[in-house]
Amino acid sequence: MGDVTTTTSTTISQPSTLSGHALVTLDKIDTSNTAGFVKTVIGGTSLATLLLGIRSAWKHSRQPEAADLAAAQLFSGAAFAGKALGVATVITVSGFTLLIVGVSALLQVNTPRQFGAAMKTAHLRSLLKVSKRRRVSLKRSRKTGGNCQKIEKNQVLQRLLNPSSSSLHQHNKMLPLLLLIFILFFVILLFFAVRSYPIPLLPQSRILLLIAHPDDETMFFSPTIRALTHAGHRVFILSVSNGNFDGLGEIRARELSRAASKLGISSSDVICLDYDEFRDGDTWNRNALCQIVMRHVEVLSADTVISFDSYGVSGHHNHSSCFDALQTAYSNGGVPRDVQIFVLDSIPLWRKYIGMWDALFSFGRSPFFYMARFRDVAACWRAMWAHRSQFVWFRALFIVFSRYVYMNSLRRISPLPLTPSAPRNSQKFKFH
């Protein structure tokens, strides 16, 4: 009876042992899957929180809306500072959490202890590689019959005096990556740090943008257009010619309407002239152009005109003619007293194609400055693609490297009167 009992207990204990191993294995699998799921959830949440924090910081670092200013008056300075501190805390915590989750996923670890063990293992592997390399070099030196101790001393002295070629090679590999990280960080810092200084306008102003050819609005004025339309102003585009130099005038006029819609301007607010006196590339009569521009200012009830300066950004004489017409109207007293005239600054050639890096040289030099946002740059690229008849390879480079895609600096050539007396608008201008 005792033998039977022993045999029975043995047969029962074996399955229990196997089932225990099976349970342990299942627990390990479940733990691994759970850790991966948790890291995915935490990483996604941290990324979403980081993006929301950046968006909030971006919104409050740009020119505030009128509604935001009205709401801000309800809070004290301490509350406003607390909100800014909260946004900064959210960005810092979420960014650090995302970094930790990314490193842990890369190392395939789930706990701080595993992380430390992984780092120790990586360090030991590097030490083993170095020691193995030394042993190989010593064996080679023994085979050649040299003095091992002298060779080792010389190697130590050489390492002290000059860095090893392997370390230099590793540093050379890391240098492009570090340079790329620095450039990206500096670009993001520029986008967040540089603020716009808009031109002084009444709420819901009517602005006339005077250009020489279709595509000038996209290539040179897109940051200003996007900022004005986003602020609730109505922008009209008056193109003096339709760019019919190659016989594509009608096509380019339609492209101008499509590009304007990409920038936030209604196609009904786009005017493209086709007069024999103002052919693309010809010399334009400033007095005739002056009369046409002032007539459109009156018909459209525009209170602001924006155009090129005397050089015309690119040196094109049609661009300069737009400025000459406005300057003639102002000098002859043809500009209403309640109308402001602003011109786009021309800059040296070496600054024109350094992209947003020109913010280091432009910021603070002009009284009025517009810095494009990420979505403004994307809108400019879409608008430039609308000018398909003119989209050649060098224009693709232009919209990537031109500073006029990222920023505009303007100056006023028509001083604002202290007491505007024009009959259509007797209200004083408010400076923001």
TrEMBL record:
Its EC number is 3.5.1.89. Keywords: Membrane, Transmembrane, Transmembrane helix. InterPro entries: GlcNAc_PI_deacetylase-related (IPR003737), LmbE-like_dom_sf (IPR024078). GO terms for molecular function: N-acetylglucosaminylphosphatidylinositol deacetylase activity. Gene3D superfamilies: LmbE-like (3.40.50.10320). The chain crosses the membrane at residues 36-54, 84-107, 174-194. Belongs to the PIGL family. This is N-acetylglucosaminylphosphatidylinositol deacetylase. It comes from Caenorhabditis briggsae. The lineage of its organism: Eukaryota, Metazoa, Ecdysozoa, Nematoda, Chromadorea.
